[in-house]
Amino acid sequence: MDEFFGKIGAAAKRAASNVATDVNVAADEQKIKGYYQSLGKLYYEANRRGGDLNGAEFMDYCRKIDGLQRHIVELKNRRDVTGTYVSEDDFVDVE
Predict the structure, then answer these.
(1) For residues 76 and 61, what is the distance between their CA atoms, to the nearest angstrom?
(2) Contact criterion met (CB below 8 Å) for 38 and 61
(3) Does position 83 have pLDDT exceeding 70, yes or no?
């Protein structure tokens, strides 16, 4: 019985970890959307003024977006999907 509860506890921990990962990914994706919006506004203003469209501010936003995209990939790769499957040995006949 202890083994059964151990398996349930481990599955709950994996599920909580995966939910936390999903929340972190969603937060990073939201930041990326904000950076895209800021980058678009910066581009529009620079283009309107006839300014440099390849300046340091543009590169700063691009670096931030690239970093967040890498972080999202790392989070998704670390996601624990092992040990979550059920086998016939996990069931017992109740009489």
Answers:
(1) 23
(2) yes
(3) no
Please answer whether residues 66 and 36 qualify as being in contact, where contact means their C-beta atoms are separated by less than 8 angstroms.
no
Q: Given the structure tokens 């300014």, which residue do they identify? A: 51
Classify the C-alpha dihedral 36-37-42-48 as positive or negative. Answer: positive
Contact 58, 39 (CB under 8 A): yes
Per DSSP, the three-state class of 79 is coil
Burial class from Cβ neighbours inside 10 Å (0-12, 13-18, 19+) for residue 14 reads middle
| Rounded CA separation 41/61 (Å) | 12
What is the pTM (predicted TM-score) of this model? 0.67
pLDDT tens, residue by residue, 4-16: 767 777 666 776 7
94-to-23, 53, 91 alpha-carbon distances in Å = 39, 71, 9
Give first-to-last CA distance, the chain, whole Å.
Answer: 16
